Amino acid sequence: MGRQDTKDPAVVVAKAYDLALWLLPKCEKYPRNYRFSVGERTVAAMLDVLTLLVEASYTARREPILQDANRKANHLRYLLRLAKDLKLLSVDSYGYAAERLEEIGRMTGGWLKSGRTAATNPAQTEPRAAASGPANPQATRASYQTARAVPFRILAWVPTRQAATGCRVKQRLRPALW
């Protein structure tokens, strides 16, 4: 099996589902005096994140739904932190949940960002022309000029060394963005 693309909405939904599957039994084990306050809100926030992500994967207008999912994920972060501080979750359990929730948040934010970029720049979503040449040479020239405008920094020059053939070779490391 190949590696799945992290921008695939099903991956985000699957990760949220796995977190919900792990978190719900943990919340059931909270003491009675916190189960119906912190526990219920934690479960509700997790289920809201999951349902919003599922809803976003089936709609065309995703942006407001994904923003709501991000907001609910932030609520869930604070509820999990509160549960850890109240010793309802162990530090290891909190660490696991926080890592998974951070991953879900990053993937949701990337999904949201990719939707914004596609809406603002429809040229990126169109397929490229065949090898016969660009349909719009002006656009190609403009993209080449902006690509050249990106500042590069040379990391280091490696001092000359003796190659296997006996001639001296000067090597340069790959340039990196600033």
Account of the protein in words:
- With 178 residues, this protein is mainly alpha-helical.
- The protein is built from six helices and four strands; from the N terminus they run ααααααββββ.
- The protein has helices at 9-28, 32-57, 63-85, 91-120, 122-125, 137-148; strands at 152-153, 157-162, 168-172, 176-177.
- The protein has a two-stranded antiparallel sheet.
- The model is unreliable at 1-6, 127-131, 146-159 and 174-178 (pLDDT under 50).
End-to-end distance: 36 Å
**What do the pLDDT scores average to?**
77
The arrangement of helices and strands along the chain is HHHHHHEEEE
Structure classification: mainly alpha
Helix content estimate: 55-70%
Strand order of the largest sheet: 1-4
**Radius of gyration, taken over Cα atoms and rounded to an integer in Å:** 25 Å
Overall 3D form: globular
The description of the largest β-sheet is: 2 strands, antiparallel
What's the number of extended β-strand segments?
4
Low-confidence stretches: 1-6, 127-131, 146-159, 174-178
How much strand content do the residues show? 5-15%
- Total helices: the number is 6
Quick overview:
With about 180 residues, this protein is mostly helical. The chain has 6 helices and 4 strands.
Topology record:
Elements: H1 9-28, H2 32-57, H3 63-85, H4 91-120, H5 122-125, H6 137-148, E1 152-153, E2 157-162, E3 168-172, E4 176-177
Helix pairs in contact: 1-2, 1-4, 2-3, 3-4
